[in-house]
Amino acid sequence: MGCDRMAHTEVLRDDTTLKSLFGWIQTPCSSTYSRFFNKFSMGLNQEVFPRIQKDFFAKLVLKKVTLDIDSSVITRYGTQEGAKRGYNPHKPGRNSHHPLMAYIADVRKEIDKLPKSKGKQLEIWNDRHEDQRYRYSAYYTNLELPIESVWLLYRDRGDAENRIKELKYDFGIDGFNFKSFWATEACFRFILVAYNLMSLFRQCVYQSKHQSILSTLRFKCFALGAWISNHAGKKTLKISLNPKRHRWLDGLFAKADGLSPPFINL
After folding, report:
1. pLDDT tens-digit series, residues 58-117
2. Less Cβ crowding at N or C end of the chain, within 10 Å?
3. How far is residue 8 from each of residues 11, 12, 150, 189, measured CA to CA in Å?
4. What is d(CA 194, CA 167) in angstroms, rounded to the nearest whole number?
5. C-alpha to C-alpha distance for 67 and 237, rounded to whole angstroms
């Protein structure tokens, strides 16, 4: 939607097409969403989100992964629970939350998908020649520092920073918050669920060679003029596009219809 505040969801109140697609009697207002999130507690968060994450990753074929963990400073301007004064380079002295986020990442890049990627191929070391499909990167330094210190020095150059920017600028992860800490956490983690689903869409349906940002996908795929027609007792979604775009969009629907877990080659 492009929203970064709960009040911005009011733009959907007059969207009759969306209401029909979801089978809503009435489109929820912003206070309805707020009441929903304020029902979450620490116990409910711990019950709901690990189950969602487990179900999501069970549908992916991941033989081996590298897990990156990074934090971000989210400035708060009200009296939200858990927000304290601390390290805040952009708004010194302001209260903030410092959530920790985990990312699945690898140093290797598949050559067929990223032919111009940097890195080196390894020598063939097994009969399957798997490592010839990839280029690898690694840090090499002459700094006489402990390994942990080298990692801390270079970690901001990692891909996790790009994912955090996406979450902030495209998913509004720093804008949706409540006075209740657990409501804020629930909203935060639902945004991460949405991010995972959009990542799956980008790679399996949109099939972009580059990480298309959400604003691009919104413009091309989601924020489209549409209406519902009724004919002979059958409802049909009509989308306002030129014929060339229609064929392209039909191709995306066909790809989505042909997909089923487990998802591979991500």
Report:
1. 888 877 666 777 888 999 988 899 999 988 988 999 999 999 888 776 575 666 766 666
2. N
3. 6, 9, 43, 19
4. 10
5. 41
